[in-house]
């Protein structure tokens, strides 16, 4: 929603969301809510997708080799808590993100089919997830 929260500190185009005037909008960045700075090293899921991270069989690593899985999980839980507290039933998330990817994520250097960590958690709890793209 105009905040600089991408890994590279560039602004996300949110023009599609700005037309949703009949809805109350809550803006979150799970990665920053999980404790990551902006800008930050680019990260991707290693060994699966967001569901696998939730289940403990995949990890999230940044391009410096740091395991940032715990921060991604914390951010996903914070997003879920916001959804529950605010009775949110639909989330518009940014594609290709290890947190918010809806159809695509980067997995071991390649764009792959899959969902991000936050997306997977929200879906598991019944929130409808839509790509902003």
Cα-based radius of gyration, to the nearest Å: 14 Å
Q: Count structural domains.
A: 1
Runs in which pLDDT lies below 50 for 5 or more consecutive residues are none
Terminal CA distance reads 14 Å
Beta-strand portion reads 15-25%
Give a structural overview.
- This protein is α+β, with helices and mostly antiparallel strands and 133 residues long.
- The protein has one domain.
- 29% of the residues lie in helices and 18% in strands.
- The chain is built from 5 helices and 6 strands; from the N terminus they run ααβαβαβββαβ.
- It has helices at 15-18, 30-33, 50-55, 69-85, 117-124; strands at residues 43-46, 59-62, 90-93, 104-107, 110-113, 128-131.
- The strands form 3 sheets. It has a two-stranded antiparallel ribbon. The chain has a two-stranded parallel ribbon with strand order 3-6.
- Strand 4 and strand 5 (110-113) form a beta hairpin.
- Helix 4 (69-85) packs parallel to helix 5 (117-124).
- The longest helix is centred in the middle third of the chain and has 17 residues, at 69-85.
């Amino acid at each position: 929603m105009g905040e600089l929260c991408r890994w590279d500190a560039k602004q996300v185009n949110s023009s599609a969301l700005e037309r949703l005037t009949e809805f109350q909008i809550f803006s979150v960045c799970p990665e920053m809510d999980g404790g990551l700075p902006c800008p930050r090293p680019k990260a991707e899921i290693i060994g699966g997708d967001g569901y696998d991270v939730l289940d403990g069989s995949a990890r999230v690593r940044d391009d410096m080799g740091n395991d940032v899985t715990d921060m991604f999980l914390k951010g996903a839980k914070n997003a879920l808590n916001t959804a529950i507290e605010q009775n949110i039933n639909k989330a518009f998330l940014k594609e290709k993100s290890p947190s918010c990817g809806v159809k695509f994520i980067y997995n071991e250097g390649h764009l792959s089919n899959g969902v991000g960590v936050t997306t997977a958690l929200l879906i598991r709890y019944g929130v409808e997830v839509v790509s902003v793209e």
